[in-house]
């Protein structure tokens, strides 16, 4: 991990951003690193601010933003009982995505909520979580507001998706680290797509399936090799499944406390900064999703 680099979290007061603050505080406590909480408010001349707005509009915006930061700092402190967090709050004037992306250059992790709502979101185009997940310079945790899920739950494993590509190497390493911090089991999942096999007899078809399973099991084992020595206390369970990766990882996430994936996988173009699997999971999994560049 990067020593003393802060965990950065953005808040706009929406349910998902409130959960993002709580999760970020918990993660900062595990890593013994500072927590940086930011929010944005409109100022004259900002993109998306109608011309001619009265001064009282901007005064109200600034007051609300300061109240959000105060509430977020209090929530962060309450979310890490037994720990004294170094909490820094910053009132920004740029777009939420722009501010988070710029600060991601010096952060160890960025945490954002999905399904953001309110006037701040209406002031810019596109999704903050998608933009940050795609372009941030550090790992990004995306938190969905789900009242049925305790965001800092202490049950369930850390799950990591493994596809055998170089892009999943960093995700595997960070998944081991997260499991070690939480002292929990790590489930490494390798899903190979349910492709149409060549025609032949039933026995031939079954034999080909077994050959593929053997090959894909070897891919998973090779991807995990060498990390047990660095994380001897992490129990690892492997799963090789014949399934669509997105569908299977979504199912695994239902009982996980954290899902870790790489930003891109096999077959991705170099210009595509966020792969189809991580993009599809971003707005559908119930547990926190950690995307690792």
Task: Describe this structure as you would to a colleague.
The chain contains nine helices and ten strands. It has helices at residues 15-31, 55-78, 96-103, 119-122, 128-135, 167-182, 202-224, 245-253, 276-282, and strands at 7-10, 35-40, 87-92, 109-113, 140-143, 158-161, 186-192, 236-242, 258-262, 289-292. A ten-stranded mixed beta sheet has the order 3-2-1-4-5-10-9-6-7-8, sandwiched between helices. Strand 7, helix 7 (202-224) and strand 8 (236-242) form a beta-alpha-beta unit. Helix 1 (15-31) packs across helix 2 and helix 8 (245-253) runs parallel beside helix 9. The protein starts with 6 loop residues before the first strand and ends with a strand. The model is unreliable at 118-126 and 266-273 (pLDDT under 50).
CATH superfamily of the largest domain: HUPs
Number of helices: 9
* CATH fold category name of the largest domain: Rossmann fold
Report the top-level CATH class of the largest domain: Alpha Beta
Number of domains: 2
> How many strand elements?
10
Structural class from helices and strands? alpha/beta
Summarize the helix and strand pattern as letters.
Answer: EHEHEHEHHEEHEHEHEHE
Query: Alpha-carbon distance between the termini?
Result: 14 Å
